[in-house]
Amino acid sequence: MAQTLLGSLPSIAALLFFLHAAWVDFLTWKISNRTVLTLVGWFAVHAAVVLALGASEGFGLFLPGSLAAGGLLLVTGFVLWKLRLFGAGDAKLMFPVGLFLGWPHLLPYAIWLAIFALIALLALKLPLPAGASMTMAGMRIDEIRRSGKVPYAVIMVAALIATIMPEYMEMFSGR
């Protein structure tokens, strides 16, 4: 259990940074290079700790697969950015998302991404419940509706959490 906790600390720190990136993107439509580089750094720490513990199987860490997933998502993000479907920050955020996902989780991630994108589309198209438009989140959703710019980091981070959370829950339950 101690190895599981020690190996998970960098991932937990990265999760907090991913949530920070999603929140800042929701508020400002921006993801800083510093945030992306911090996430890549947390992945390096995570990989070093897991490899030092000799627990790469338990954490599902296969470095070439993680690098390949990060590269594939970065290229995908770059293409979407060039097509003006994504912001540059969203495209950059794809790399650390891929690093933490790894190759085997790309398909479940794509499915969750589609689900959360549909939820976001509905949230932006359907009217807000009575009184919700007076909250900070409601006012921001109205602003997003008017601008037509979507904070994709929110969707990407939600899909990332939905994809990796079952594995972490199983790991901590001791199965």
Automatic annotation (TrEMBL):
Q: What class of enzyme is it?
A: hydrolase
| Sequence ranges assigned to domain Prepilin type IV endopeptidase peptidase in this UniProt record | 13-120
Q: Which GO terms describe its molecular function?
A: aspartic-type endopeptidase activity
Q: Which Pfam families match?
A: Peptidase_A24
Supply the InterPro entries for this chain: Prepilin_IV_endopep_pep (IPR000045)
The portions of this protein that span the membrane are 6-24, 36-55, 61-80, 109-128, 149-169
Q: Does the keyword Transmembrane apply?
A: yes
Keyword terms: Hydrolase, Membrane, Transmembrane, Transmembrane helix
Q: Which E.C. number(s) belong to this protein? A: 3.4.23.43
**How is this protein named in the record?**
Prepilin peptidase
Annotated source species = Aquamicrobium soli
